[in-house]
Amino acid sequence: MQRYPLGRFSVSRIGFGAMQLPGPGVFGPPRDRGEALAVLRRAVDLGVDHIDTAQYYGPDVANELIREALYPYPDSLALVSKVGARRDESGGWVPYDEPDQLRRGIEDNLRSLGVEQLAAVNLRLEDDATPDHRFDDQLAAMIQARDEGLIGGLGLSNITHEHLRRALPSTPVACVQNPLNLINRASMPILKECHSRGIAFVPFFPLGSGFERTNPVLNNEHVLSNARRLGITPAQVALAWTLGLAPNVLLIPGTSSVRHLEENLAVADIELDEDVQQQLAAAASTRSIGRA
Fold this sequence. Notes:
two-stranded antiparallel sheet; 11 strands; 38% helix
C-alpha cells in the first residue's frame, strides 16, 4: 500500500478510525466488545499503522479498547487523537477548548492509551467562527504540548483555509482533518493547499455522516450504479474516489465489523477508471437518493 508522512511516521494511506467502536451515538460500551477488539487486532494484522481516536469517544471507551487490544503497541503504529470537546452525562457534545482544557485533554488521551507521546493530536475547532485571538491561544497551548514532548505533531481539524494560513507561520502542521466526501467538497481548497505544502489531509465522514437520517453519499445514484457495475460496495466506490483525490489523502474509515474493515482496506487495490470518475463528478450536484 502507498504511504505518506504523518509527523515523524510514514503510514499506509488507509488507516482506521475508532469512532464507531463505542456504543450508539459514540457513547458508552460497544454492542459487542469481543468484535470491537477483533476489529482492532485484525486491522493491525492487515497492515494498518495509523489509528485515529479521541478520549471523548465513549468517553474513554475507544482508547481503552485500543489499549486492551494492541498494547504494547508496535513501534510503527501512529496513534492520533484530537482535543477540543468532552461528553456530558447524557452523551452530549460539549466544548472543552480553553488552553488549559486542551492540555488536560491531551493528558487524558495519554493516560487512557497508556503512552507518553502521541504521534499527533488535532486541535478540533467547534466551528469556523473561532476568533483569531482565541485560535492563537489554543494554538499556543498545542505548540507548548508538542515542545514538551507530549505530542509528536500538531494537527488541525474542522478548520477554514484562513485558520491553516494563520497557523503555518507559527508551527509546522502534521495533518489537517476536515469533512470531505463525494457530496461535501467544501474542503477541496484546503486539501490542495495541504498537498502543495506536504501536509497529510485526513477526511472525516468520507462515507457521509453517521448522524444523518439519510446518507447522501452511499445512497447517491451514481455511487450505487457504479458499485453494481464494478461488483464492489457503495462504500468502496466512495472511499476509492476519496483516496484518489491526491497522494496526501489518508483515509481513516471506521467500523465495528471485521468484514467491513476488510472491505475498507481492500480499497487500496481499487482504481476507478475515467468513465467512473466523470460520473462521480456529478454526484455533488445531484445529491440523488437511490435504493441500495
